[in-house]
Amino acid sequence: MARVYDAQTLQGIVDSIAERMVGEVERGVVANYIPELATVNLNQFGIAIVLANGEVICAGDAEVPFSIQSISKVLTLTLALERCGATLWQRVGREPSGDPFNSIIQLEYEKGVPRNPFINAGAIVTADVVLEGQKPDQAVDQILDLCRRAAGDDDIFVDQNVAKSEAQTGHRNRALAQFISAENNLRCTVEDTLSVYFRQCSIAMSCRQLAHLGRYLALGGQLAETDDAIITQERTRRILALMMTCGAYDASGDFAFRIGIPAKTGVGGGILGIVPGVASVAAWCPGLDNKGNSLLATRALDDLVRQAGWSLFTGDVHFSLEE
Ligand code: GLU
Fold first, then answer.
1. Spatial distance between the Cα atoms of 59 and 278, rounded to a whole number of angstroms
2. Which of these ranges, 107-111, 189-193, 294-298, has the smallest mean pLDDT?
3. Spacing, Cα 285 to ligand 1 middle (Å)
4. Domains plus CATH for the chain?
5. Is 86 buried (19+), middle (13-18) or exposed (0-12) by CB count in 10 A?
6. Which pTM does this prediction carry?
7. Residue 232 pLDDT > 80
8. I need a surface site. Which of 62, 103, 130, 202 has the fewest CB within 10 A?
């Protein structure tokens, strides 16, 4: 099947997806273990695409900011890889966990080395890598700077109410961090590392901003408007591989099966999906399924990728089979 690259056709596709999502009755459940997220209105849906050439296509509530939550783990992984390169893999693995995002079970078996950087335990380690040698506020600024630079937008902030709510109720994350620390895999204090982690998760962005942010991942680490690179092409390839295999918690296999592009989900209901060389896509709807992924944003990506022929496992055929 031929891939769709044309903005007008894509606009038609996302308009009809957004229209369909408004009428969906089954919308999932908001993440209520973070009280502030439980207050978000379920009846919102947004989607935005930024093409490799910079064209922007939006539909629905694409301008409404939401809590990016675990999508921020892509940012800390980017910074941690730039900071310590391949030695990062001594402190965090690269295998899907097959367990829920906040599970503690594997940590004990695997001596405090989390399975991958996208489960909470792994993201706590990458936050610790970013934090080492500076104050928590500076580390948060560094993450926000990357966010703003990649998105080309200074209007991106931490939602302090969500951050406070996470800090007050983050008992499981505290347990994970304490355990990792007991196994000597944190360099900073548990409270400092978590203060970075809770705030990175609480960054608020709209679908449009998030799709802009993801463009460096679609462009091999490059910022399109300048010759600047956020990260090398080689490391971008690694991040995308991890997004494909571990980006949707213990539903990552199903996500690859159904949709077939690297993606990172968050319990705020957002999903960032990357079609390498083609586009960055953000979809958002706050209701989650039983694995913690947005029910309708997943469905929207499924529809979009199918209609646009964007699955990495589809591809254009460049030769004739008849010869
Ligand atoms: N801040 C959330 C937590 O630590 C992030 C979870 C997520 O989006 O997967 O539980």
1. 19
2. 107-111
3. 16
4. 7-65+206-308 (3.40.710.10), 70-201 (3.40.710.10)
5. exposed
6. 0.96
7. yes
8. 103
